Amino acid sequence: MISKSNVKFTDSEVRMASRFASSTQQEIEKLLEDKDSENTKRSTKVAKELFYEYLKEKNIQEPHDKKELAQVLKSFYVEARKKDGSFYSMGSLKTLRFGFNRHFKAVRGVDIMSEEEFSEANKVFAAKCVQLKKDGHAKVHHKPPIADADLKKLYESGVFSTDFPKTLLNKVFFEIMLCFCRRGRQNLRRLRKSDFVVKTDSTGAKFVSKVVDELTKNHREDDEAEEGGIMCAVGGPFCPVASFEKYLHHLNPENEFLFQRPKKKVTADSDVWYDNMVVGERTLGEMMKQISNQAKLSMDYTNHSIRATAVTILDKSGFEARHIMSVSGHRSESSIRSYSKTDESTKKRMSETLTAAAVSDVSAVSSRNQLAERQCVNLSPILSLSQEEHIMRDVHLSSHSQVSKQFTFHNCSVIFN
Q: Which pTM value belongs to this model?
C-alpha cells in the first residue's frame, strides 16, 4: 500500500485537483430532489399524505413488509374516495398510484407497479379502473380553447393596450404563452429577461426566440432540448414583437425576471413602468382568468386554455402532429389529439348543414304534395259505383221526360207524352 505521505503531486496536478469543488450530503440530496418537476413532487406529496390518512381512518398499522403493503393497497384501490365521498376519476386514481410508487421507491426501494408481490394488488387496481370507466368516471376534462369571438374581443376590448403597464403585461404574457405553447403555471415565475432574445431572419423580419432550455413536466434531465416555437413580427398595431420590445424597454433594470409587477402610476415620460418585484406565482397562474374578466369574455379561461388554443389553431391549419409537438413539447401524437376536438363553431356549422339538408327534403316533399293537390283540382272527381248509378238513373229519367214518342194511326194522329 502506498502511503499518502509518500505521494508527491506536481504543480499541474495540484492545479487540476483544485478544479473539483467539495460537496456536502445535503447538497447532493438537494440535487436529487430538484431532479423532479414541481408537479411531480407535489403529486407525490399528496399521494403520501392520502395514504397515511387512509391508514389512520381505517385504524391500520403502517405495513412493514411487501406482503402487508400489497394487502393495504388492494383495499385502498377499492375504497378510495374524495373528501365529498365521490369516486376519484380513473385518471386521478392512476396519478395517486404513480405517487405511491415514487414514494415507496424513495423510502423503501420498493416498486409497487412491477414487483411480483404486488401482482394481485395491481389486478385489483386494473379491475377498479374498468369499473370506473363503465360508471363514467374515466372522462378527462381538458381545458377548452378560446373561442374565435373571444379571441377577437381580447384584441378589441383594450385589455391588450400597449399604452399602460398592466395591459402591456397582459399582452406580452398572452402572446408568449400562445406562441411558445407554454403550460399553465410551469416555470412562469422563473422566466428571466435573458431567456428570450429578439433576432432578425434572412429577410430582415424580426422574431423572438427562447435561448435557454428549461426542464418541463415531460422533458427532464435525460431528454434532448426542446426545439420550441418562435414569435414572429406581423406588423400593425398588434404586432407581438413590437409589444415585446416595448415591454423590455420599460422593465425595471434592477430586476432580472421577465414578469414584473406593474407600477400603479406612471407618467408619459417614465422609462420604468414596473416595480423591482417579480409577479407572484399564484397571480401568474391565474392571469388568463383575470384577463377573461377584464375583457368580459364568454367564460373564464385558464392559462392552459391558451396552450389548447395554440394546438387547436395549428391543427386546424393543417400542420402535422410532429411539427406541433416540436413547439408544444408533447411526447406523443395521442396527446395532440386530445386537444384536436370539434369546437363549438364547427359543430354549429355541422348542425346547420344537417338541418338545411333535412328541411330541404321536407320542403321538396311538401312541394310535390301541393303540386298534386293543384292537379287534382283540374281533374274530374272520382265517383263511387253507387254515385255513378244514381247519376245515370237521373239522366235516364230526364231523357224519358224530354223525348216525345210519335205513333201514326190511319185517318188520325195521336201523340203520347
A: 0.61
